[in-house]
Amino acid sequence: MAEGAETFSLREVLVAFTACVSEQREVRVDPYLAGWKGLVRFLNCLGTIFSFISKDAVTKIEIIENYRNSDQREKYLTVQSMVEYELANGLVDLQKRSDSGCRTLLRLHRALHWLQMFLEGLRTGKDNSKTSVICSETYNASLANYHPWIIRKAAGVAFCALPTRNTFLETMNVGTAEEAVAMLGDALPYICEVYKITEELYAQHKLLDLP
Ligand SMILES: CCCCCCCC/C=C\CCCCCCCC(=O)N[C@@H](COP(=O)(O)O)[C@H](O)/C=C/CCCCCCCCCCCCC
User: What ipTM was assigned to the predicted interfaces of this complex?
Assistant: First the structure.
């Protein structure tokens, strides 16, 4: 493990995603970003081979954080208010790449789908299963569909550096591998709920294919 492994706690990530959904079933942006930042910290613990992935995630987190720190911060309080504001003000480019909040969050949203599948694979995997296999199978079934060949190849190479399932689970800093598995079981419904609400919102506004 690279330096900094001790600063990651799965519990913190869980708390962030637990706090995402409001009573009105809206997705709060701040805990959403806090959850991603925690995950990036974990990724950084796994070694520099994952830097190109964490850099991309950080860039996207920072774009949305900048909106949260701007004069329009209230419009970016939830994913719902962000979508409404950006669409009403013509800020979402449907034809070409832009730095809109909607487009940027969509990239993280797609990655959340991979995360959901990956954590479920990890949770239900056997003691001796390979994290690299779980990771590449779930990546190929989700995020890879949006990535060009060169990114898919680089990701595939990086996955080979992943530690065994038990080492991976112990790195989560929640106790034994069994305790980490139990916590994953607690965390997953919250992550799934965030994903589901965002997916429905983006589908409703036809935003799922933003370039
Ligand atoms: C609970 C703890 C255990 C789980 C630990 C998981 C840690 C994962 C942390 C971060 C995941 C990174 C999320 C990456 C977001 C990627 C967004 C994206 O798709 N970006 C591409 C498209 O962007 P635009 O060009 O359209 O702006 C971009 O091209 C991607 C570049 C980088 C490569 C992304 C590969 C993603 C692989 C999936 C994550 C692998 C992590 C493996 C470690 C377990």
Answer: 0.97
Tell me the domain boundaries of the chain. 5-88+101-202
What is the full DSSP assignment across 33-48?
A: HHHHHHHHHHHHHT-G
Determine whether the shortest distance from the Cβ of 145 to ligand 1 is under 6 A. Answer: no
Instruction: Specify the length of the chain in residues.
Output: 211
pLDDT at 7: 62
Asked whether 45 lines ligand 1 (CB < 6 A), one says no
What is the CA(36)–ligand 1 centre distance, in A? 10
Ligand 1 in reach of 10 Cβ (< 6 A): yes
CATH fold for domain 5-88+101-202: Glycolipid transfer protein, GLTP (1.10.3520)
Indicate which residue's Cα is closest to atom 19 of ligand 1: 107
Phi (first) and psi of residue 87, to 5 degrees: -70, -45
Nearest Cα to Cα of residue 196 among 11, 26, 12, 5: 26
Question: Average pLDDT for residues 157-170, to the nearest whole number?
Answer: 92
pTM: 0.95
